[in-house]
Amino acid sequence: MRTLIKGGTVLSATGASAADVLVEDEKVAAVAAPGVFETADEVLDASGKYVLPGGIDAHTHMEMPFGGTHSVDTFTTGTEAAAWGGTTTIIDFAVQSKGTTLTATLDKWHEKADGNCAIDYGFHMIVSDVNDTTLKDMETCVDAGVSSFKMFMAYPGVFYSTDGEILRAMQKATETGSTIMMHAENGIAIDELVAQALASGRTGPVEHGLTRPSILEGEATARAIALAKVTGAPLYIVHLSAAEALAAVAAARTEGQNVFAETCPQYLYLSIEDLARPDFEGAKYVASPPLREKRHQADLWRGLRTNNLSVVSTDHCPFCFKDQKELGRGDFSRIPNGMPGVEHRMDLLHQGVVAGEISLARWVEACSTTPARMFGLYPRKGVIAPGSDADIVIYDPAARQTLSAETHHMNVDYSAYEGFEITGKVETVLSRGKVVVSPSGFGGGRGHGKFLARDLCQYLS
Ligand SMILES: NC(=O)NCCC(=O)O
Ligand SMILES: [Zn+2]
Ligand SMILES: [Zn+2]
Q1: Is the same domain home to 77 and 210?
Q2: Preceding omega of 386 cis (within 30 degrees of 0)
């Protein structure tokens, strides 16, 4: 089966050019000057549109257990929603709970995802019980294509690891060539602030933000960087939200340390003012790290331009407002942490292009090419080039849309971006050559997506 994408502007991490793309079965066969290929079994007209590599969302949580409940997107609903938004690969997190092994955890996550995804997917591993077996199992995970391990300096008693445990896991990461991903917030100090707030009757959602000050993200980020320096491990800071944390990353990178960071659209567009919405509506915006004061946003955009922030992921972790966020009415510390967003990342970052914050090439780089390189998927993913998987988005940069829970495809009863006016819209999406989204609707489905065994990080200096 040959598909020709004709007349579009092909985007990459290095620029844009008028070109046609020939797809043969699941792969890109050729990229050539307009008109070189005359026809194919199927021809998609991309005149006036961008043709870009499918997005890679390197941070999602489908069906994630948290605080006695689960994030509500399944691997099926979440990957379908991702496809609607131009994302053709997710990397989700398998979650080790205390007392279980990494290998059993990985088996469990394969059971949840295999045969259920609409687009390709990989796994990172959350390490929450550092012991000799866990450290040994990290080797098995790397061999099985899970080459990155998330650890937490937050959530004492749940996912939290001590500095000593982090150090040991980092040493194993250095030995295996794998990457440590860090949730960098000082959870011990935060838990004190949370207890004090509750004791003095401050119970509403905004307290979630007020008890997790940005300086404690900066401190934890700097500490993680120090531990990575001692051990030589590559370090990737997840969901970076604060100027103080970004400064720590920038300083380490200036020294040449293999330290990288991602941010998420919510930190670029939303703020603590959303957490302060009345009538418990702020609960919709509870995630950790919390939404910050607006002053941080300009720093984050600058970080994206300078590559101190290399990747934009969503940290998609949806909990319904009714029933789930409700668990924390009267006690903000019980509000399930996480926000929906997997469907909107490409559109929201395109607004950064429209506003002149980032270039088109940078949009593609941060949302597709760099995550592919960072997590060992390049050049299979993250680029439109001969031999690459035909994960391709045809994007109409002039279309207009309004984001809303009424129209989104995520399995959650609210939109964090309700009413946002967007310039640009995904028109067609190919996943390994198959048209999964088109103007006539959803053509993909559960089971098309395949597990991606990933190589080591390809982004080290
Ligand atoms: N971010 C968040 O609040 N929930 C998902 C889990 C995590 O990434 O820490
Ligand atoms: Zn986290
Ligand atoms: Zn997360």
Answers
A1: yes
A2: no
Taking the CA of residue 159 as reference, the ligand 1 atom at the shortest distance is 9
Q: Are 325 and 259 in the same domain? A: yes
Please list every protein residue whose CB sits less than 6 Å from any atom of ligand 1: 61, 183, 239, 287-288, 315, 317, 337-338
Nearest CA, atom 9, ligand 1: 288
Query: Domain with 78 in it: what CATH number?
Result: 3.20.20.140
pLDDT value of residue 129 = 98
Mean pLDDT, rounded, for 184-195: 98
Clarify whether residues 61 and 39 are in a common domain.
no
List the CATH number of the domain containing 399: 2.30.40.10
Q: How far is the CA of 239 from the centre of ligand 2 (A)?
A: 7
| Overall domain count for the chain | 2
Q: Quick one: angle between helices 132-143 and 102-113, nearest 10?
A: 40
Token pair, residue 340, equals 């929906």
Residue 117 and residue 161 in one domain? yes
Complex prediction ipTM: 0.98
Nearest residue to 221 (alpha-carbon basis) of 172, 310, 154: 154
pLDDT tens, residue by residue, 371-408: 999 999 999 999 999 999 999 999 999 999 999 999 99
369 and 291 co-located in one domain: yes
Q: What average pLDDT is seen over the chain?
A: 98
Supply the pLDDT for residue 67: 86
Whether 456 maps to a domain, the answer reads: no
Cα separation, 337 vs 325, in Å, equals 9
What mean pLDDT is predicted for residues 29-47?
97
Contact (CB, 8 A) for 292 and 267? yes
Task: Let me know if residue 448 belongs to a domain.
Answer: no
Q: With beta carbons less than 8 A apart as the criterion, state whether 387 and 27 touch.
A: yes
Alpha helices in 308-424 (DSSP H): 345-354, 360-364, 370-374
Smallest CA separation from ligand 1 atom 4, residue: 338
Ligand 1 nearest atom to the CA of residue 287, by list position: 3
pTM: 0.99
> What distance in Å separates the CA atoms of residue 289 and residue 285, rounded to the nearest whole number?
11
Q: Is residue 451 part of a domain?
A: no
The range of the structural domain enclosing residue 178 comes to 55-374
170 plus 272 within the same structural domain: yes
Distance 288 CA to ligand 1 centre (A): 5
Contact criterion met (CB below 8 Å) for 101 and 137: yes
Residue nearest to atom 5 of ligand 1 (CA): 338
